[in-house]
Amino acid sequence: MTQTRRLTALLIAVLAFGALWLQVHVGLDRRPDREVWEELWRLGRYFTILTNLMVAVTFAAIAGGHRPRPWWTAAVTLWILIVAIVYHGLLARPLDGIRWWSDMAVHTFVPTAVVVWWLMLARKDGLAPRHAVYWLLWPLLYVSYALIRGEFDGRHPYFFIDPHEVGWPGVGLWCVALGLSFWLGGLGMVALGRFLSRPSDRADGAPDGPQAR
Prior knowledge:
Shape: globular
Helix content: over 70%
Radius of gyration: 18 Å
Strand content: under 5%
């Protein structure tokens, strides 16, 4: 693991943790009657927040010397990239001040940093089309969690998985459409990873062969 990879990973981890902290700060500023744990629980319903947390932990581990498998760094990159695409395509709204910075941090700054890091520094050897299928597991788990939680507390985080707004058939159609987007995006990541992969990707001493995949 080169020093450049570790240092830039540390910067991304700090950015992601800082963006999450800013989200908590903004939420508490708007609702000062709320306890910190209540705000954390509220934020925990969002795919954006959970995926940014995944980014923060992953890149903190890389900064600490951990060598994640190429399929994992590609997966995290895909998931946070989808966060940015869905937000700017479906969910963006006019904001100003610290709320604008807070939203941009988790939906734009962190995704951009992760994508650039993956393109420039991540190992990409061993990626295969089957990984695009495996990468559907996180969004599938999230949608299941969000729907179950929404039925209990009466709040669904996004309109496209809110059966009270778009109906259960609508939720099903949106899930199929988003699942297809994740899968196609995953195939694109695999193709790009193969195209960009170089023998030097293994220069950090990671083993070759199936065990490295």
